[in-house]
Amino acid sequence: MSTRVRDAGQNNGVAPEFTVDPAMLDAISPSGDRGGVVLGSGLKGEPLTVSALRSQPTRIVLVGGLYLARQVAMRAMATGAWVVVATGRPAAWQVLQQAAGSRDGRPSPLVQIRRLSPVELPRPSEDAPLLVVTDGGPTPQDLFPPRSPWQTTVYVLPYLHPQAGTTANAADLVLMQRLPAGQAELAARIWRLPPQMMRQLTTLKDDQVVALGTNLWRPLRLVTTQKEQQLLGPVRRGD
Q1: Which of 41, 69, 211, 226 gives the lowest tally of CB atoms within 10 Å of its CB?
Q2: pLDDT tens digits, residue range 154-199?
């Protein structure tokens, strides 16, 4: 897959670098390589990073709780990305605006919390990539499909639904938290997973995620920085 999970110190899937306000870096305190979005750590504690903001339209599906979705959004912010969240639960996403801070007494323009309806998006560029989060339930509307370079659309699925198969199959990268048995069986049908992978999805701990893509199956452990813990609380599976 072209959206690669990579180990620090290797040269595969090198993420581009973006500029970001020092105050933002202080607020988020991202770890690992600049430019990439640090997902967590591998089984040996090595940092794992994904080049999620790149020079081609990108789709990412998150199957799990709000904690994971908000952490991914915050870490994209820390690389200098614009973040637009389309959601039916705006209060749950206000923490992003808290993290972004304010300018001249007004909320930072880097974060926009929107309703689930089409709006005009900021124009993404290499210097200012765009992350669009669609938090529209298990069968999301494709309100903001990625159509231009440097735009990544993230679909937040609280659980897998058979009607989400099209969205799931179109994803460049899927991040899944622990699933109950029935959900794991559906995941196995959607992505043609062998039995051992299906079983692994049911036994993940609260702080574990599987990164899934073409020729990719990578379990990882979520890691929360001190600043993130102040904003999001401890790592968890649910909302």
Answers
A1: 226
A2: 999 999 999 998 899 899 999 999 999 999 999 999 999 999 999 9
Distance from chain centroid for Cα 228? 15
- Concatenated DSSP letters of 159-189: S--GGGHHHHHT-SEEEE----HHHHHHHHH
CB 172 within 8 A of CB 58: yes
* Domain range list for the chain: 22-231
CATH class of 22-231: alpha beta
At 42, which helix (H) or strand (E)?
none
- Rounded to whole angstroms, how far apart are CA atoms 147 and 25? 28
- Give Cβ neighbours of residue 152 (< 8 Å, ≥ 6 apart): 52, 53, 54, 57, 58, 59, 60, 76, 129, 130, 131, 132, 146
CA 31-32-34 angle, 5° bins? 100
